[in-house]
Amino acid sequence: MYILAATWSVASGQCFKNNYTFAEGEEITYTVAYNWGFIWIDAGWVEFKVKPATYINRNVYHLDAFGSTFKSYDWLFKVRDHYQSYLDKETLLPLWHHRKNYEGGYEVDDKYVFDWRNNRVFAYTKNSNQALRKDTVALPNRCTFDLQTLIYYARNLDFSGLELNDTIPVYAIIDYNIYNLYIRYGGKETITLHNGASYRCIKFSALLVEGTMFKGGEDLIVWVTDDKNRVPVLIDAKILVGSVKAYLKEAKGLRNPWGARLN
User: Fold this and answer.
1) Is 257 domain-assigned?
2) What angle is formed at CA 227 by the lines to CA 203 and CA 218, rounded to 5 degrees?
3) What is the CATH number of the domain that holds 96?
């Protein structure tokens, strides 16, 4: 219990100055297509939700994401991924994270409790190859996120003034390690999804850490709307058994009116 008590006082300072892209009630869903060889198959879905919550007497964003293959494709590579995070509304720092994954028979169950007063995180990690491991990991920088809060941080990045291929450094805790990663600015593009919807977008890529599903390297490309919502409309990534794309299916409860949709 002392671990939870240690997290209530969040030190001053924050990585991104404010949140202007998302709010409570936002729900964004995607269709996930997998590529094996020359064939693209719509084989799964992902849903991201932003909910209100209270965590140790603080008002927080409850970030709740779930992804799954369709049951008809579970025989090929079954996926059930659930991510939950608490993000402090005032400081925009992550406070708690739970990752529970099942990917092709490999299971992960990780929990992090952030203690910003002492610049550390309590990590509880286990997977199919490792029994429960408890660690206290030093936080090297205020811009240190779990994988889920990193997504929402990236949506709030200010790309104005950047030149093509400029990079923005970030830190992420994955398993019980801190990784020094980066996001690379890829310019602006107009893209049309397979459903015919067109959007003005900001393009960026991110450095990935190799895991059970994704390859390592700069093989994640994201297109977010070039408006105040910064909704990811297309995500393209290399995985260990091919490629995967996530197409925007529906976005509800957005903080701001659409400003980048062209039709």
Assistant:
1) no
2) 20
3) 2.40.360
